[in-house]
Design goal:
Number of helices: 11
Distance between the termini: 20 Å
Low-confidence stretches: 379-384, 389-414
Structural class: alpha/beta
CATH superfamily of the largest domain: ATPase, nucleotide binding domain
Number of strands: 21
Strand content: 25-35%
Bound molecules: adenosine-5'-triphosphate, magnesium ion
Number of domains: 3
Helix content: 25-40%
CATH architecture of the largest domain: 2-Layer Sandwich
Shape: globular
């Protein structure tokens, strides 16, 4: 099978490996491997050995379910060490000819040449818009005539040591990193519509350890940020408030949690047995919601500050799209809407086919986005994945495929 791509989402809460094919608008999922994460905190590697073990386990599951041996992958990256800045680059166009790819590359090179400290590296350079001889907002200048081409680019940088630690953990699991992809860019790709990106939107992925956001306006990314706060903080709050272990607090949050106190009946209570000694405690669900609401509100206030800091707060006509595991807490949308004062939509990955059921959940937006974005941003050859043994169905498919090829022109040749 051709063009098999691997996405490896190394989260704080879970590690998700997806083997898939990008087919026009859809992603066809061939196999998935999900494993609880270890050795990560707030998007940063804290224990390389534990993390690579968890990565290896997730990759192994994906190999078993897909029948492909995984050698390389597009890998997610987040953490508060991420920074972004907008920059301009220009290039002169000589002779009476239209702008060509070489000119675009040179302009991007010039935009990329910003001074960054030696301990940081550039992760992405995304063109936002072009101008040609002073005419602004040119979308695609290829072939157009002019003397001076300028590009406005969004540049994302990361701490070299944080990236190196992540890369080493992935490589210790016998997987090479095709390319690192910033979490919120991947999430945006998985859940936003073209119309939202055009109109102006912020995508917010609330995970376990980080809250990742990206602002898209006029079809491209204008601002990105990673905040070191997420659903684990909500669980920690419950741990302290109830004086119970983290795992129990996590279960309470998922089974009984609500982010909106006023939605809960003040008389509703439930029993929790903290230490298995048969001494249950009675918990008022309204009080639990109060604890959760305070933290969720704080998360959205920090996001709001970041949006304001970007200077694009007045341009988000499509409002906010929220995803990530923590977006499943009931009431999250209402709290976000109250804090932001604009419309909010909850989202999970769409446009999936194949073995995709488990992935149709907000926790996997970034995981799914990695595949398509990796291919778009990259790289000469698609990710290497070889069948361990050719699955019988694939063999039949190949046979039928070769028959049809003789009868029909290739899709791309049509
Ligand atoms: N049904 C649910 N209701 C409420 N919260 C949930 C639910 N399922 C998962 N969560 C929370 O979502 C968070 C994990 O989200 P997610 O899987 O997106 O994180 P991650 O990608 O591993 O972490 P990160 O991206 O921050 O590194 C955890 O805090 C978890 O408690
Ligand atoms: Mg995540």
């Amino acid at each position: 099978m051709e063009n098999v791509v691997i996405g490896l989402d190394v989260g704080t809460h879970k590690i998700c490996t997806i083997v898939g094919q990008v087919r026009r608008d859809d992603i066809f999922v061939i196999g998935v491997g999900i494993e609880p994460s270890r050795g990560m905190s707030r998007g940063i590697v804290t224990d390389m050995a534990a993390l690579s073990k968890a990565i290896a386990a997730s990759v192994h599951k994906a190999e078993k379910s897909s029948g492909y041996q995984i050698k390389r992958a597009f890998v997610s990256v987040a953490g508060s060490h991420i920074a972004s800045v907008n920059s301009r680059g220009a290039v002169g166009i000589t002779g009476q000819r239209g702008v060509n790819l070489d000119d675009l590359e040179k302009a991007m090179e010039a935009a990329r040449a910003i001074a960054i400290p030696h301990n940081r590296e550039v992760l992405h350079v995304v063109p936002r818009s072009y101008s040609l001889d002073g005419q602004n907002r040119v979308r695609s200048p290829l072939g157009m005539h002019g003397f001076r081409l300028e590009v406005e680019a969004h540049i994302i940088t990361a701490s070299s040591t944080s990236v190196a630690n992540l890369e080493q953990s992935v490589e210790a699991a016998n997987v090479l990193v095709d390319r690192f992809i910033l979490n919120p860019l991947a999430a945006g790709d998985a859940v936003l519509t073209e119309q939202e990106r055009e109109a102006g939107v912020v995508v917010i992925d609330i995970g376990g350890g980080t809250t990742d956001l990206a602002i898209f306006i006029e079809g491209t990314v204008w601002h990105t940020a990673v905040l070191a706060i997420g659903g684990d903080l909500v669980t920690s709050d419950i741990t302290y408030w109830m004086n119970v272990p983290f795992d129990l607090a996590e279960a309470v949050k998922i089974q009984r949690g609500h982010a909106l106190k006023r939605a809960i009946d003040p008389l509703e209570t439930f029993l929790v047995e903290p230490f298995g000694d048969g001494m249950p405690i009675e918990v008022k669900r309204e009080e639990l919601a109060d604890v959760i609401e305070a933290r969720i509100e704080e998360i959205f206030e920090k996001v709001q500050q970041e949006i304001k800091r970007s200077g694009y707060d007045g341009l988000l006509r499509a409002g906010a799209v929220i995803t990530g595991g923590c977006s499943q807490l009931p009431g999250v949308r209402e709290v976000a809407q109250r804090v932001f004062g604009f419309p909010v939509r909850l989202a999970k990955p769409e446009r999936l086919t194949g073995m995709a059921d488990v992935l149709r959940n907000p926790s996997y937006s970034t995981s799914v986005g990695l595949l398509r974005l990796g291919l778009q941003m990259d790289t000469p050859a698609p990710t290497e994945a070889t069948p361990i043994t050719t699955p019988p169905t694939a063999k039949i498919g190949q046979f039928l495929g070769s028959l049809f090829k003789r009868l029909l022109p290739d899709e791309d040749e049509k």
